[in-house]
């Protein structure tokens, strides 16, 4: 029994010893692994430290970047300088152009005044050159024959019932415009016939006789005689046509055009002279207001 007990104790001790040795081996193995891992980490750190840039490299990089930024800023300043110079030149040109525009406006106004004065003067001279002329409207085509002057010298006194001490003397007479053409089998109106008297007094006598005679007909055509004026004066005189029609509708028939382009009106035994159609229009409005007030 003693022998068995000792054998068991010895076997147990042997097992414990074996277990301790294995534990020690296991611990040593773990320590080896830890050492190996540490060595790897150290190696990695050393490698990273060896590959990182130095202070000199960092400074060089910063200086290079600074140089590039400086160059770009210098370029921007150069562009700004050029733009500023261009703006300065543009401002000078604009200022010069404005000064020239002021001068041109003043010159234009002066020229407009001069042109207006010269136009009026030329129109007046043209009207003076036509003062011996009369326009005959309504005489049928080819009625005057080949010699218009000879025909009119005899025809005008006869149709107007004039008694002159000396026969009429015309310098020239002719139709105005091209020969009219028949359109759709309709007879076109005859062209105006213009005549120039050698004597201004004879022209005035004929014009007065025509006013006394009034409107008359010759071979189914209504004949009218008018003073010959320039195109501009004629246009101004025609501007009264509308208002003269209103005057006739209101029973005011005593009115006529006074050279060059004024209207002489007789109302309530008073003669009133108007310089523009607007003045006549204002006069008619005043008459309408008076009639409303009377009502």
List keywords for this structure.
14% strand; 295 residues; three-stranded antiparallel beta sheet; alpha+beta; five-stranded antiparallel beta sheet
What's the short story on this structure?
The protein is built from seven helices and eight strands; from the N terminus they run H-H-E-H-E-E-H-E-E-H-H-E-E-E-H. The protein is of the alpha+beta class.
H-E string = HHEHEEHEEHHEEEH
Helix content: 55-70%
Low-pLDDT ranges: 45-49
Count of helical segments?
A: 7
- What proportion of the residues form beta strands (DSSP E)? 5-15%
Record field, number of beta strands: 8
Radius of gyration based on Cα positions? 60 Å
**Biggest sheet features:** 5 strands, antiparallel
Average pLDDT, rounded to a whole number, is 84
The SS-based structural class is alpha+beta
Main sheet: strand order: 2-3-1-5-4
Distance between the termini: 168 Å
Shape: elongated
Structure description:
The protein has 295 residues and is of the alpha+beta class. 63% of the residues lie in helices and 14% in strands. It has 7 helices and 8 strands. The strands form 2 sheets. The chain has a 5-stranded antiparallel sheet with strand order 2-3-1-5-4, with helices on one face. It has a 3-stranded antiparallel sheet with strand order 6-7-8, with helices on one face. A hairpin with a 3-residue loop joins strand 6 and strand 7 (262-267).
SSE topology sketch:
Layout: H1 2-51, H2 55-129, E1 133-137, H3 148-160, E2 170-175, E3 193-197, H4 200-213, E4 216-218, E5 221-227, H5 231-238, H6 241-249, E6 255-258, E7 262-267, E8 270-274, H7 277-294
Antiparallel strand pairs: 1-3, 1-5, 2-3, 4-5, 6-7, 7-8
């Amino acid at each position: 029994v003693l022998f068995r007990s000792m054998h068991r104790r010895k076997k147990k001790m042997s097992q414990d010893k074996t277990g301790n040795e294995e534990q020690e081996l296991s611990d040593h193995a773990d320590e080896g692994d830890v050492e190996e891992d540490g060595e790897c980490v150290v190696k990695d750190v050393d490698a990273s430290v060896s590959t990182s840039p130095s202070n000199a490299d960092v400074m060089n990089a910063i200086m290079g970047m600074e140089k590039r930024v400086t160059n770009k800023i210098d370029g921007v300043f150069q562009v700004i300088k050029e733009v500023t110079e261009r703006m300065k030149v543009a401002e000078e040109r604009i200022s010069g152009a404005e000064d020239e525009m002021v001068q041109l406006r003043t010159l234009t106004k002066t020229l407009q005044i001069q042109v207006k004065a010269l136009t009026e003067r030329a129109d007046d001279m043209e009207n003076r050159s036509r003062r011996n002329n009369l326009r005959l409207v309504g005489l049928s085509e080819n009625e005057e024959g080949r010699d218009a002057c000879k025909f009119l010298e005899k025809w005008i006194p006869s149709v107007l019932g004039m008694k002159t001490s000396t026969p009429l003397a015309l310098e020239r007479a002719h139709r105005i415009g091209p020969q009219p053409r028949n359109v759709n089998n309709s007879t076109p109106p005859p062209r105006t016939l213009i005549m120039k008297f050698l004597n201004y007094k004879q022209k005035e006598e004929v014009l007065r006789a025509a006013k006394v005679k009034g409107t008359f007909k010759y071979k189914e055509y209504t004949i009218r005689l008018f003073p010959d004026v320039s195109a501009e004066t004629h246009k101004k005189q025609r501007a009264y046509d509308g208002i003269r029609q209103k005057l006739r509708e209101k029973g005011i028939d005593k009115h006529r055009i006074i050279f060059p382009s004024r209207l002489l009106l007789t109302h309530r035994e008073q003669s009133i002279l108007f310089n523009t159609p607007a003045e006549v229009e204002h006069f008619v409005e005043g008459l309408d207001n008076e009639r409303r007030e009377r009502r």
